Amino acid sequence: MVGKSESDGEKPLDLFLKIGLDERTATNTVANNKVTANLTAVIHEAAVTDGCDRTVGNLLYSVATKFPTNALVHRPTLLKYIVSSKIKTPAQLEAAFSFLSATASDDLKIDDFEAACGVGVEVSLEDIERAVDEIFEENKAVIVEQRYRTNVGELFGYVRKKQPWADPKIVKQIIDTKLYALLGERTAADNEKPVKKKKEKPAKAEAIVEETAPAKLSEEEINPFSIFPSPEQNFKVHTEIYFSDRPVLRACNSKEILDKHLKVTGGKVFTRFPPEPNGYLHIGHAKAMFVDFGLAKERGGCCYLRYDDTNPEAEKKEYIDHIEEIVGWMGWEPFKITYTSDYFQELYELAVELIRRGHAYVDHQTPDEIKEYREKKMNSPWRDRPIEESLKLFDDMKNGMIEEGKATLRMKQDMQSDNFNMYDLIAYRIKFTPHPHAGDKWCIYPSYDYAHCIVDSLENVIRDSNDTSLDRLEYHIREELNKTAPRTMVVLNPLKVVITNMDSSVMDLDAKKWPEAPADEPSSFYKVCPFSKVVYIEQSDFRMKDSKDYYGLAPGKSVLLRYAFPIKCTEVIFGDDKETILEIRAEYDPSKKTKPKGVLHWVAEASPGVNPLKVEVRLFDKLFLSENPAELDDWLGDLNPNSKVVITDAYAVPSLQNAAVGDRFQFERLGYFAVDKDSLPGKLVFNRTVTLRDSYSKGGK
């Protein structure tokens, strides 16, 4: 595809360099026809064909790769804001993308757009320094105690709440400088494993328990890294390979190999997080980051961020930028960023050596033939061709003398094995596609199966990720959020309750943000909401027939409204069908002499006749119903129909109206939630991160 500028006599590469892209990014972009066409169009729309400064150019590149396709009619407007420097930071641009995606092709409300993107808001270096100083002052005791174990990502988040349009790079630099000024040089003790404090015995639980104490966990479950031996103990790590015609091969590190490794690494743990830059990250990547970066941090080692870029057709700069952004957002900092393509020459030379040793061969089977021979456990007819012949053919493959799809290099393994992973795997295939990182030097590319473990060895990586169960991952998420996420109340499916013995007045009530928060500090509390004549409870917290094991509301029964008063159901109002419950009538006990067993969360009208704050809540759950759907014949039939449930009309306490994107909360009795980037002014969206361990849901509810 020819870009517009080329038809005007100017090559796309020259045009991209003019807007400030570095040479490598510009060259990689030209190799991608779609991005080349988009970026060329954006440059012409922005009227900067004569060039612009690098900051503007980088924003234009983001527009070319990330702009929401449902809002293309508004792209020229956004470009005017960028070129005029009214939108000048990545944070502003991301906010613009979110706003325009929600607007789609509807009329653009300029005032709302500018407010959502921080147009006209100037954040000076002094503003950022002042915000950082305030955060450090508020958290000084914790920072001094935790020193360099302090969660910098959390501090960063606090600053972003105060100054959402601040340059994140400057924020990070100032935080790092402030940490160093406060703590001085990092000491050996800063890298030691923290001593776990003994938890105090919790207070007696109420009848409806929001979070039951989990069963006592083993050391491995509490610290998943405890299962890994130290680098000098790596002789314990071995792999047993079972062949159909030979004895079991037990592969492990010899003392000589281990000593050489320890000399190079200085005895440190080296791990790597190796995503493929062909898509966006998902929850499985978060789990892998926890193991890879977490193990390196826990042992005072190093973790590479390695882009496993062996497929040039699927990889994009957009995904590379996204991955790096998310790794930082998750609080991890790579020791070094590398690419599998950095090692293409070494991988090629090792493949040649495999052929020389008789362990690899050039094959001409089609994909269908390979599949058929695998199913029949048959060797390829070219498996035993002469070594010299395979060497020549592999050289021809490298030099572009064989058509794409006409030859592959396969590793000799065991085609008669009962383990299909032992069948002769493909090491190299032909692809006449320029590589986003390596350019057009290669027309053969290594497979993941071949390259991954070799690059691990070249980078002195000590081990792959051992698995982390979902239950364990969720346990650690709850442990973290229990300490950091303030409590609040949201009702997902509201049922109206009218308190008949109360007038139209309202009462202000406070609640603790955290159960252990000091009672003498005002910052420990939040306004639940005014307690008024009309409150809303969950529909599932009421039923017509009571029972011994049920702690919700029923006719003639009392419950305690959390942080408020006991109420007793006195009447039920039905719809015309005599089945649908429209509202509950109840009386409250202002003296609090009634001591019901059940405790319910609730939200009230802020003033007579005014509905509570309406929010959207997305309930995410496991994608599959079984633990290992891969073992099922019909794995698609195992999809969880409730893996995502969207509730558009939930009610929330008023204090949540100021929540910002990324803020995290515990919705009492419901789970942990975070504010989604789809949120707009007046329309907050919350995503469930994880549920609570809730004994109430296991009872007679």
From TrEMBL:
TM region positions: none
Keyword Nucleotide-binding found: yes
Molecular function terms from GO: ATP binding; glutamine-tRNA ligase activity
Superkingdom of origin organism: Eukaryota
Residue ranges occupied by any Glutamyl/glutaminyl-tRNA synthetase class Ib anti-codon binding domain in the UniProt entry: 485-589
Domain called Glutaminyl-tRNA synthetase class Ib non-specific RNA-binding: residue spans: 13-168, 171-242
Known catalytic reactions: tRNA(Gln) + L-glutamine + ATP = L-glutaminyl-tRNA(Gln) + AMP + diphosphate
Glutamyl/glutaminyl-tRNA synthetase class Ib catalytic domain segment(s): 268-461
Record-linked Gene3D superfamilies: 1.10.10.2420, Glutaminyl-tRNA synthetase, non-specific RNA binding region part 1, domain 1, Glutamyl-tRNA Synthetase, Domain 3, HUPs, Ribosomal Protein L25, Chain P
UniProt record similarity statement: Belongs to the class-I aminoacyl-tRNA synthetase family.
Protein name according to UniProt: glutamine--tRNA ligase
Organism (species): Sesamum angustifolium
